[in-house]
Predict the 3D structure of the following.
Amino acid sequence: MSIDVVTFGCRLNAYESEVMKSEAEAAGLKDAVLINTCAVTNEAVRQARQTIRKTRRENPNARIIVTGCAAQTEAETFAEMGEVDLVLGNSEKLERASYGRVAQFGIEETEKVRVNDIMSVRETAGHLIDGLEGRSRAFVQVQNGCDHRCTFCIIPYGRGNSRSVPMGVVIDQIKRLVDNGYGEIVLTGVDITSYGADLPGTPKLGTLCAKILKLVPDLKRLRLSSIDSIEADDELMEVIAHDHRLMSHLHLSLQAGDNMILKRMKRRHSREDTIRFCEDVRKMRPDVVFGADIIAGFPTETDEMFENTLRIVDECGLTHLHVFPFSPRPGTPAARMPQLDRKIIKERAARLRIKGQEALLAHLRAEVGKKREILIEREGLGRTEQFTQVELDANIAGSLVSARITGHTERHLIAEPIGKAA
């Protein structure tokens, strides 16, 4: 074997895994498994530990290097595992020198943990990659870290404070990827709507999107990974309204639909803010589809508060739900709040998932008969502009196919191509 990478968590991690592999290979590292962890829930950490043990059983002679947010926040937890050879922090994992030392000198027991203070990192480098292996769309990191301190979230301690990649670097990266055949680019980061606050002139995310679409005319589709709607700037709203190369799918960092719970989460929006945002965007782009992250069973959540969260799915017209049962992360204020019974949390998460499936099914039914542009991900499967999965007879990964929606399963659309691949 050479280098394998196992990735957990967000799209930013997927992008960084490609950077890690590239840097490790350039440093001459061989016979290694890099495990890029996530810290968003206790379950994510448990899965990482389980994978590490399995990896060691299957690769007894490989060097196992663990990194990512969980490694940053719980370095000693992973260092104590006999299966782990090295623990790298979120900054160190992107540096070629980290792997070069291993390739040249091996790993000394005294150096098993190489994790610096992430809060001391002031810049985010624009790492150039040629694409993501096996993917039809490419992720481009525009931002890292977070300046907010939501009471449930450990991620700022794994990622550090917010810092942005300069616009010129982002645009150069996108031009490179488009030249390599990628038709869709996804802008990713930890809190991308905070983009630019640390850059000269403090450009906003909307400024960045407008520049990309103007300066990379061959880019067919631009997508945003996730946004905090309360931070959406005026120029971003203009781009949403007038440039249809920005895809009509917005994934919201919502978390709850009850104002008291939002306040206890230390979120900066109210339920009314989110409803108004969705209404405003839908007036500008009637074909828009919204997704959202929602936490079920946050501490102190009553039945009435949970009902408010259920109702906001309909009030905002949400379609793609990512439901997270609340998981207390050590070191966060929410972990010290009065906790709900785990059974109640699981029941509420199940009800939210059922609600989400009902919303998705309504969307699928409404799509039948419409013409959509499908980005082919792999043979027989693609995604519409609204990020809805489609089954169709097409096999050129990365191509755009015009298709008519003819039906659906309970999970995805069925379509017939009506034109040649772009």
Summary: The CA atoms of residues 154 and 330 lie 8 Å apart. The first strand starts at residue 3 and ends at 7. The radius of gyration is 22 Å. The longest helix spans residues 342-367.
